[in-house]
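Suppose you are handed a protein chain with no further information: no name, no annotation, nothing but its sequence. What can you learn? This example shows the usual starting point.
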Amino acid sequence: WTVGVRPVNATANWFYNQSFPTVTFAQDENLEEKIVDFTVSSAKSSIKGRVTTADGLAPPANTVFVEVRDDKGFGTGSPVGSGGSFSMVVAAGTYRVYLKTQTSNFDIPELPSVTVKEGETVDLGTIMLGKRTDSVRGIVIDETGTAINGVEINARESNGNGYATTRTDAS
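A reasonable first move is to predict its three-dimensional structure. Written in structure tokens, the prediction is:
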């Protein structure tokens, strides 16, 4: 088991940027207990901004997620609120910024890295999502050629920005 901690909201004033420990248990009926402790660090900096659709409107609340990661892969994220705004507390450092969306209707721009100094708030300004009309079509069948209903299909852009999901309808 890999055991980790993360803030449950974007306004938490702490972070954990160490590797998550792994614990193992014997494959038997004996009761075992493992103790794992974590030391978190204070975060005194922040990143904020606003996301809009191509027509200048805010995307529906909680359909776009902004994530920042340092060169070791550690970071945090925040959902975009109903007005399109986001804000997250981070440690000082340089971060790569990613946007993820629950719909394939948005084209997500490539975003530059951002450096945040101790105690500083960096405003990324307005990030505009493009409009996307591309699609992927296909069918999921079993070994007899019968279409399978309700299969979850996931697609992710190779740059890590775009993500879409849907389910088959067996048609």
